[in-house]
Amino acid sequence: MLDIFLYLLRGTGLHGGIVEMAGCSDLPKGRLQIGQGLTVRQAMDALVAANPGYQWELKDGVVNLMPRGGAPLLSTKIKKFQMDANDREIPVVLGDLLRLPAILEREAALGVKEGPGQGGLSSGEAHPVPRQPMPIKINVQNLSLLEAFNETVQASPKGVWIYHETDCDGAKTFIVEMASSY
Fold first, then answer.
1. With the CA atoms of 178, 89, 156 and 59 taken in that order, what torsion angle do they form, in degrees rounded to the nearest 10?
2. What residues contact 94, with CB distance under 8 A and at least 6 apart?
3. Using an 8 Å Cβ cutoff, are 163 and 117 in contact?
4. Which single residue of 5, 44, 110, 147 could bond 143 by disulfide (Cβ 3.0 to 4.6 Å)?
5. CA nearest 176: which of 1, 20, 15, 4?
6. How high is the mean pLDDT of the chain?
7. In angstroms, how far is CA 177 from the centroid of its own chain?
8. Beta pairing class for 159-168 and 15-22
């Protein structure tokens, strides 16, 4: 699903977030057969029609794709979070959001733990143009973790956050990564 999602966002100027839920050794698989010239809305509608276990929404310039059951950790409310950073530090910001007391408490209540690989970059530009980091100010108040991820990823050019949750023999782990829709 991730590869299809990144492909659909490529060149649109939109940011994104995707939730992938998996078992011990399976990765979420998706299928999509579309023609050229579709809008993002048409392409995303076709994607969820071909993969009915998923839903999508576009809100404030961020496209989210997730299983219909969602990911309970991402609904956790954050009362307040502020951070000064730069656009190259978005993975650090996502990691800091995950270390907030409300998130850690919810992790424990849900029986889910952060897995290895937190905050990595799963893809990027093939030939990045050197540029100066852009300062950003993250100010989250009374938002869900998913909404906070969406606000944060908007500070990254063509940024996409990825939440992977794995349930293997009752042991639930998750990682959050950043990618680019280049």
1. 70
2. 119, 149, 152, 161, 176, 178
3. no
4. 147
5. 20
6. 86
7. 7
8. parallel
